[in-house]
Amino acid sequence: xxxxxxxxxxxxxxxxxxxxxxxRHHTYDEDLRQYEYVRRGDPCAPDAAKQMFEGPTTGSLSDxxxxxxxxxFIASITLACRFCIEGGMPSETAFNLSxxxxxxxxxxxxxxxxxxxxxTMIRDYTTRMQAINRKEIYSLQVYRCLDYxxxxxxxxxxxxxxxxxxxxxxxxxxxLFRKExxxxxxxxxxxxxxxxxxxxxxxxxxxxxxxxxxxxxxxDSHFSRVFRxxxxxxxxxxxxxxxxRHWSENA
Length: 251
Hints:
The chain is built from 14 helices and no strands. It has helices spanning 5-21, 28-40, 45-54, 65-86, 91-106, 111-133, 140-151, 159-166, 170-181, 185-203, 208-214, 220-231, 235-242, 245-250.
């Protein structure tokens, strides 16, 4: 198939202009990571999406600022919708939610309104995925504990710290948590950190040491040992086997 000369010339000109102006798009992996957070119902999703959507590395799809972000909104919600369907959200719910937000976006009259609506949309999909991923019914105190753990995986977590945040006794929290979830608090925290590590290994170029430090493992070797206990693979082997696989298999 012959290359369209006009498109090719325009593409080369745009490459040149971006290099001159030091303009870059966000990376493929950065793009995938934010939607993987949404799919998992990860509390990091809204901040990651906000940084990407409102940052300097978004695409330029129109000379009109409002139209530009409206087009970007459609691209963003299309990916969020697809990732959530793959994560277990009923397709009709995901598609109808997408239709609803695109119609609301069409009524936006300023870039700020589009920004705010995008944040609301990401939070909505993320919250719904949290509910899907939590099929069990827990007490309010255990739900609050789960929320706190998910929001603070990058910080040291102990039963004492969680109990203080929830304003209940450590002994009561330990007993209640194990009774309702079937595992100890410390075990649940390790599982969540390993799940997060899987995402970071699959969708980022962070080193194993950086991931270990971010998720509060005492050392790179400690991280590798625990990761292998849960997955049967070292972090390096897991990355080699799974890097971007989720997206490529469902493309």
